[in-house]
UniProtKB/TrEMBL annotation:
<protein>
    <recommendedName>
        <fullName>N-acetyltransferase domain-containing protein</fullName>
    </recommendedName>
</protein>
<dbReference type="GO" id="GO:0016747">
    <property type="term" value="F:acyltransferase activity, transferring groups other than amino-acyl groups"/>
</dbReference>
<feature type="domain" description="N-acetyltransferase">
    <location>
        <begin position="13"/>
        <end position="179"/>
    </location>
</feature>
<dbReference type="InterPro" id="IPR016181">
    <property type="entry name" value="Acyl_CoA_acyltransferase"/>
</dbReference>
<dbReference type="InterPro" id="IPR000182">
    <property type="entry name" value="GNAT_dom"/>
</dbReference>
<dbReference type="Pfam" id="PF13302">
    <property type="entry name" value="Acetyltransf_3"/>
</dbReference>
């Protein structure tokens, strides 16, 4: 008899937001210690807990998707995005029902998630995942999904009371382009500098210095020399 697991065709795998009606499917995998073993959350032990978790955690989550086969929940994939100046970076997490392990489900779902999340957040540049060095299956998932191993963080994660060495893995947006600043043509510009600064309050790429400059008018000079370039680092 051939005991090899049957590969799940990628077209069978979908990801979508969680629904309250996922509760009975959800508990089948979220109630399994083997599935939650490497996760930050505890195994779900009752239907009520499952309902509360879907309602209070999964549904309000900014980007948590149910991994589905035939629209039935068999796992999750989520992205946690940093805020403020670090909004360009997000973390990836996932798990799959034990029944479906080694059929390519996590890899299929991670690929879908990576594709969607870079579209959903055009200013997201980097996705990263921390993986326990002993979690070979998860490292393989990341490798197959295009993540690159970047380093080892020793004694880094505390997972359920155990301090673990973890590998850091990263993937980057293929489409991200840094916003380009408009080029100000100084010779054509004859507006009032004070107004311009108030109105636009942004950096212009100085065509003379090819560097971000705050442009000021310097009274009394001829047109070309009326421009005073002040190098700035942070103008919003
Ligand atoms: C990690 C996990 C999501 C993988 O899901 P999956 O659907 O089985 O993943 P895939 O089938 O897409 O890929 C698994 C790969 O790991 C390989 N693998 C599995 N166990 C392995 C092991 N012990 N050693 C080496 N490779 C292993 C499989 O052979 C497969 O690779 P292949 O396609 O080259 O044969 C799943 O095991 C799981 O839910 N684990 C618990 C939660 C978890 O660890 N989440 C990740 C936290 S970072």
């Amino acid at each position: 008899m051939n005991n090899q697991p049957i590969e799940t065709h990628p077209s069978q795998i979908t990801i979508r937001p969680f629904k309250i009606t996922d509760v009975d499917d959800f508990i089948l995998w979220a109630g399994d210690d083997q599935v939650t073993r490497n996760l930050m959350w505890e195994t779900i032990t009752s239907r009520e807990e499952a309902l509360a978790y879907i309602q209070d955690v999964c549904i309000p989550h900014p980007w948590r998707r149910s991994i589905c086969i035939d629209d039935r929940s068999i796992g999750f994939v989520s992205i946690f995005r940093e805020s403020g100046d670090d909004r360009h970076r997000a973390y990836l997490g996932y798990a799959v029902s034990r029944e479906y392990w080694n059929r390519g489900v996590a890899t299929g779902a991670v690929k879908l998630a990576v594709n969607q999340v870079f579209k959903n957040y055009p200013d997201l540049v980097r996705l990263q995942a921390y993986v326990d060095v002993e979690n070979q299956a998860s490292q393989r998932v990341l490798g197959k999904s295009g993540f690159v191993k970047e380093g080892l963080l020793r004694k880094y994660s505390n997972v359920k009371g155990q301090i673990k060495d973890v590998g850091l893995n990263g993937e980057f947006s293929a489409t991200y382009k840094a916003p380009t600043e408009p080029v100000l043509n100084f010779r054509e510009w004859n507006g009032n500098c004070k107004d311009m600064r108030k109105k636009h309050r942004r950096q212009y790429l100085c065509k003379f210095h090819n560097t971000p400059c705050l442009v000021r008018k310097n009274k009394g000079a001829d047109l070309e020399h009326r421009i005073q370039h002040v190098r700035v680092t942070n103008v919003h």
